[in-house]
């Protein structure tokens, strides 16, 4: 999806909303792509880079970068 400012945006359309502030108040998203900092509510732009890296890894290898069976999510 390309916004008015010509930046490409990726999102999980199952939870997509238009955000009016710079920070989200809820913990939503696909657990296998979340940065560990999201679980401790220490979210910043670095978490988005982490998620993008996990997504790209998944697209290239058709596998997840990490095993999430330890109950983090």
Mind explaining what this structure looks like?
- The chain is mainly alpha-helical and 73 residues long.
- The protein has a domain at 32-73.
- The chain is built from 2 helices and no strands.
- The longest helix is centred in the last third of the chain and has 17 residues, at 45-61.
- It starts with 35 loop residues before the first helix and ends in a 12-residue tail after the last helix.
- The mean pLDDT is 74.
Task: Work out the helix count.
Answer: 2
Q: Write down the overall mean pLDDT.
A: 74
The Rg value, from CA coordinates, equals 13 Å
**Which shape, going by the Cα principal axes?**
globular
Using DSSP, what is the number of strands? 0
Tell me about the biggest sheet? none
Helix/strand-derived category reads mainly alpha
Order of helices and strands: HH
The helix content, as a percent range, equals 25-40%
Strand coverage percent: under 5%
Low-confidence stretches: none
End-to-end gap: 27 Å
Q: Features of this protein?
A:
single chain; 73 residues; mainly alpha; 0% strand; globular
Short recap of the structure:
This protein is an all-alpha fold and 73 residues long. Helix content is 29%, strand content 0%.
Blueprint (SSEs and pairs):
Layout: H1 36-39, H2 45-61
């Amino acid at each position: 999806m390309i916004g008015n400012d010509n930046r490409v945006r990726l999102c999980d359309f199952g939870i997509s909303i238009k955000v009016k502030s710079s920070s989200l108040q809820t913990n939503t998203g696909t657990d296998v792509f979340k940065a560990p900092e999201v679980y401790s509510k220490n979210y910043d732009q670095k978490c988005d880079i982490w998620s993008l890296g996990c997504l790209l890894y998944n697209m290239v290898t058709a596998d997840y970068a990490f095993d999430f069976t330890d109950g983090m999510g």
